[in-house]
Design goal:
This protein is an alpha+beta fold. The protein has helices spanning 3-8, 20-28, 55-59, 68-74, 85-102, 119-125, 128-141, 155-163, 186-190, 201-209, 215-219, 223-241, 274-280, 282-294, 326-339, 342-349, 380-396, and strands spanning 11-16, 42-46, 49-53, 79-82, 106-110, 113-117, 148-153, 178-180, 263-271, 297-308, 313-319, 356-368, 402-406, 416-420, 450-461, 482-485, 488-489, 494-497, 501-503, 514-521, 526-532, 535-542. A hairpin with a 2-residue loop joins strand 21 and strand 22 (535-542).
């Protein structure tokens, strides 16, 4: 590496909390804040695969990327829970805020991992060792004893240093949990590491096929040759393997620390009436909206936390199609208080709560206020509709006014549901709320304009008046000629029809397949039929 290249590789500090998703889950479930070696085998699952696991689970052979059933086979005592990335971000936000108060200029990379320039903290605390020790002392105060700090030339090398063992060559450990690569030696430290550390899986597999298996072998190639052969992706991996910094500027782009926008209210005595609680929170909601306005922000999702006098917290995130006002926030407090179940608290704690003793309102999602200003030609009609429907909803309750939402499903009637007004569209992952699918057997292309809430009984017959069914090869037993729907026979004959296609669900339970058929009458009228058992049903009609 040339002297100029060494100068571009800035000294970077990386703060890393191993297994942060598991930490976040334990904090969310209010169990224990740290993943101690004896905390048990825990795995977080998404799409039937392990996305994070505890140290105890890894000791039993569980690894990230394993299928859920294989992980449970390796560790029969494995505790499995769904992975929620939103929890990771929400629980890491207070850690970031505490770190920014100690050493400003932090860039969050992902939940559990962040970076900052080394120069400022090293000058303030005396050297890099003391700066790293101060950061780990803060981590200990935050109940994160397994946190690590890595310091090296460049962000990539610093991250690899944080993940390194104290016995790895080229790494010093002045304090427990601190890994430092001396200046100018980061390239030698990275050299024996596998090339997959700096390249995407597909690109790493390509490099393996060419015999390039370590970062040192990749860094030894001329950069111009890498650019000509692999393009921008190859150059990026090559610069990481060579411990080079960016050509211009710094690798660390600190975020602007967000102001504390959450507001809280302690209630003495506790309130058990939803209307009284809403009245008490009016000033609180106004203070929240004033704080957002001062930051030139609007709230599009609001987190309401109601804690009763026995310490049970009732938390919910409310979304809004536009932006929250103080009145909207007060309504959400009222609805959530009305839905609180004091009986569940009594079962868990042995005594019944007297009411809500603490209220906390916090923006879960914000947006720039400029993005929600009225358009050039005004939006008054929409605002009037929203205003009147919101007033009706405030009287009838959260579910009193609703709109239809398109969701996922195979049958047409399954693809619609009623969503309360002023609620954003569902964002559940891997659930029926996802209309993207895949949904094998669903209608592809235009859907019927008229969908029956309950499919109507239908009869499909051939020219001789005999019923048309589905044979063993998933084909029609005869050419359809006449259609009868709900005992009403059409004068027009069937002119065109599609091949039937199957809807196979719960095959492991030996559930019989259902079939769909599109057909058109001579007058252009078209229908979508469903064959279930030995009968036909009409799902919808095309106009």
């Amino acid at each position: 590496m040339s002297t100029a290249e060494k100068a571009t590789a800035e000294r970077i500090i990386v703060f890393w909390v191993p297994d942060w998703p598991v930490h976040a889950y334990l904090r969310e479930s209010e169990r224990t804040a740290a993943v101690l070696p004896g905390a048990g085998a825990i795995a977080l699952i998404a799409n039937r695969r392990v996305t994070a696991c505890s140290a105890a689970a890894r000791a039993e052979g569980v690894r990230v990327g394993l299928r859920e059933n294989e992980a449970q086979a390796r560790c029969p005592t494995l505790e499995v829970h769904p992975h929620d990335p939103a929890v990771d971000e929400r629980r890491f936000a207070p850690v970031l805020a505490s770190l920014e108060r100690l050493v400003p200029g932090v860039e969050p990379i992902r939940p559990g991992l962040c970076a900052l320039r080394s120069r400022g903290p090293a000058r303030y605390y005396g050297d890099e060792d003391r700066a790293a020790a101060a950061i780990l002392e803060l981590a200990s105060q935050l109940d994160l004893p397994e946190a690590r700090v890595g310091i090296a030339d460049g962000r990539f090398a610093a991250e690899q240093a944080a993940r390194a063992s104290s016995a790895d060559p080229g790494v010093t450990e002045p304090h427990t949990g601190v890994r430092i690569v001396p200046p100018g030696t980061s390239r030698a430290f990275l050299s024996p590491l596998p090339v997959g550390r700096a390249a995407e899986p597909g690109f790493a597999e390509l490099l393996h096929g060419l015999g390039i298996r370590t970062l040192g072998a990749l860094a030894a190639l001329p950069e111009d040759a890498v650019r000509q052969r692999f393009g921008a992706e190859g150059v990026s991996a090559h610069r990481r393997a060579s411990a080079m910094g960016p050509r211009h500027g710094s690798e660390v782009l600190p975020r602007t620390p967000a102001g504390e926008l959450a507001v809280e209210l302690a209630l003495e005595p506790p309130l058990d009436n939803a209307d009284q609680l809403a009245f008490a929170c009016m000033a609180l909601a106004e203070r929240l909206m004033s704080g957002l306005a001062g930051e030139r922000l609007v709230c599009t999702a609001l987190r309401v936390e109601l804690t009763d006098d026995i310490g049970v917290r009732h938390e919910r995130v409310w979304s809004h199609p536009h932006r929250f006002t103080a009145a909207d926030a007060v309504n959400r407090v009222r609805w959530q208080a009305s839905a609180m179940s004091a009986g569940s608290a009594a079962r868990d704690t042995g005594r019944e709560a007297a009411g809500v003793a603490h209220v906390r309102l916090a923006p879960a999602h914000t947006d720039r206020a400029a993005a929600h200003e009225p358009g050039l030609w005004s939006t008054e009609p929409d605002e009037r509709v929203h205003h009147h429907l919101s007033r009706v909803q405030s009287r009838l309750g959260h579910t009193g006014v609703g709109t239809m939402e398109l969701i996922g499903g195979r049958l047409l009637a399954e693809r619609q549901r009623l969503v309360p007004w002023s609620t954003g569209r569902a964002r559940e992952r891997g659930s029926r709320a996802s209309a993207a699918g895949p949904w094998p057997g669903a209608v592809v292309g235009p859907t019927p304009s008229l969908v029956f809430p309950e499919p109507l009984p239908a009869e499909l017959t051939d020219a001789a008046g005999l019923p048309v069914g589905i044979d063993e090869e998933d084909l029609l037993t005869a050419q359809p000629a006449r259609l009868r729907v709900a005992n009403a026979e059409f004068d027009e004959r069937v002119s065109d029809w599609s091949l039937p296609w199957a809807i196979r669900e719960h095959w492991w339970k030996d559930a019989p397949a259902r079939f769909r058929l599109q057909l058109q009458l001579t007058d252009g009228d078209a229908w979508l039929l469903l064959h279930e058992g030995d009968r036909w049903l009409a799902e919808g009609r095309y106009d």
